Amino acid sequence: MTKSTDEKALTDIVKEMATSMTAEQSTRHWADDALWFDIPAFASRGLGPAKKMFDRVFSGFKSCDIDILEEDVKISGDIGIVCTVQKAKIVLRNGETKHAWVRQTDCFERRGGEWKLFHEHASSPAGGEWDGKIITG
């Protein structure tokens, strides 16, 4: 199945956010009133708290490689939702390497002709093993 122009635009934004290493780049497509829930017990409304958190977290990273393993895009009018399963390899400044699975939902609204993220929710599976597979049907 060929992606529509809007689906491609949204997946490109999500990939850009996943590969960013600065708060400015991570939130470039966010609406000013975005609501965000992240893996650590952290939530924010608006760009200021999110940017502060991103800058603090990224300052401890030497590198962060994200592989998007699963992706599902739904668009209805001016609303678009992108659900992804991501595998992260994070190298901290002290040389320690961490691996994590991340499930992320990014909700967009077309505002003034541009897609703007108005809600993001990221989580990491807690307890037990999960292989990253999504079961459907």
UniProtKB/TrEMBL annotation:
Annotated ranges, domain SnoaL-like: 16-126
Classification via Gene3D superfamilies: 3.10.450.50
Pfam hit, one: SnoaL_3
InterPro entries according to UniProt: NTF2-like_dom_sf, SnoaL-like
Domain of life, per lineage: Bacteria
The protein's name: SnoaL-like domain-containing protein
Species name: Labrys miyagiensis
Lineage of the species this protein comes from: Bacteria, Pseudomonadati, Pseudomonadota, Alphaproteobacteria, Hyphomicrobiales
